[in-house]
Design goal:
The protein has helices at about 10-15, 45-55; strands at about 25-30, 35-45, 60, 65-70, 80-85, 90-100. It has about 120 residues and is α+β, with helices and mostly antiparallel strands. It is globular and about 45 Å long.
């Protein structure tokens, strides 16, 4: 069973993260083995800190207005291996080891399984 890899973030790096008016920042999650983008979710400063401290993704649910650790219900946990923030500090990227069936609540591996038009898959 995989385990979390805590990431000791520097205070000056955390200070560079820019949150929107609702106190949220988008977080993209990518599979470390396949490099496939698995999902995008929102984080608060608290869930970012919790994710980095535990090595397991924790997000903010806008619809439920609460924190949620990915996989608590489904068992499809994400174990952080690397964490980045972009040049503007307004988007996060987590490279993870995905446990279980996948990241999408529909049962798909990735939330990005639908395409516009007739595109080769």
């Amino acid at each position: 069973m995989p385990t979390g890899t805590p990431i000791a973030a520097r205070a000056d790096d955390l200070a560079k993260v820019t949150y929107n008016a609702d106190g949220l920042v988008p977080a993209i999650v990518q599979d470390g083995s396949t490099h496939q983008v698995l999902m995008m979710a929102w984080m608060t400063e608290a869930t970012l800190r919790k994710t980095l401290a535990t090595g397991r993704t924790v997000f903010w649910s806008r619809s439920r207005n609460e924190e949620w650790a990915k996989g608590d219900t489904s068992g499809d946990r994400q174990w952080v291996r690397e964490a980045y923030y972009d040049c503007d500090g307004d988007t996060l990227l987590f490279v993870v080891e995905q446990e279980g069936k996948g990241a999408c609540h529909t049962g798909e591996v990735s939330c990005f399984y639908r395409s516009f038009g007739d595109q080769a898959q």
